[in-house]
Each structure stands twice: as structure tokens, then as C-alpha cells.
Amino acid sequence: MGVVYYGVYPQYFELGRVEAMRELGMTYREMEENGTMLPVKHLEINYHGSARYDDLLTIKTKITELPGVKITFDHEVRNEAGELLTTGNVVLVFVSSETRRPKKAPSDFLQTMAPFFT
User: What residues have CB less than 8 Å from 64, skipping those under 6 apart?
Assistant: First the structure.
């Protein structure tokens, strides 16, 4: 059909999340090495248009509130013409690697993020 399969968009969102966290100064790897996992609790996707094969896409990722036990990422996917193709949000929960129970966001991560929310 010449369009990107709808099930690929969560992978695009994940790329946006990974890079957003890297820009904030903490990688998923570092978080896991320090005893925190981030499983997905909720995923919502709204399709506005179709990406075509070989389109250059831009994934915009925002964190709109300081995390507590969970963190929400809002995503937009646009094509080269700037047309909005997809929006969505993903909620992840901070979970202890030891207990497998929810926990508050790591303090060093919150300190890194705090200036963006004051």
C-alpha cells in the first residue's frame, strides 16, 4: 500500500522517549543499572494521516509534568512537509528492579528535570 504499518508508531514513540531521556542526562541503561525499570502502563495513538515509505519523519516528544511514580510522554510524528501524521501518549511506571513494585522516580532524574518545570 506504500504506507507505514500502523503498528510501527509505538516504536517511533520509543525512539522519541529514549532520545528525550538522553537529552535530559539519563539513559534507560543507566536507570536500569541503578535499579529502576520503566515498563509501559498505557499507550494511546491517534492517526491523522499516513507516513509513506521513505518519508523523513520528525518525532517530537514532550514531558508535560514532573514525574512521580509514573511519567507521561506526549508524542507527535510529522512528515517533511510538517504535516501532523500521528499523536499519542505513553505512560510508564517507575518500578524497582528488586521488588518489581512501583516506586518514585529516582531523585537524580527529578533533579535533572526540575528546572524545566519551575
Answer: 72, 74
pLDDT at 75: 98
CB distance 31 to 74 below 8 Å: no
pLDDT at 96: 97
Taking a C-beta distance cutoff of 8 angstroms, is the pair 58, 77 a contact? Answer: yes
The residues pairing with 90 across neighbouring beta strands, listed in sequence order, are 43, 73
Of 3, 34, 114, 23, the closest CA to residue 67 belongs to 114
pTM of the model: 0.91
Task: Count Cα atoms within 13 angstroms, Cβ side, for 83.
Answer: 11
Q: Looking at domain 6-117, which of 3.10.129.10, 3.40.50.300, 3.90.1300.10, 2.60.40.10 is its CATH number?
A: 3.10.129.10
Q: Find the length of the chain.
A: 118
For 118, counting Cβ atoms within 10 Å of its Cβ (0-12 exposed, 13-18 middle, 19+ buried), the class is exposed
Contact 74, 89 (CB under 8 A): yes
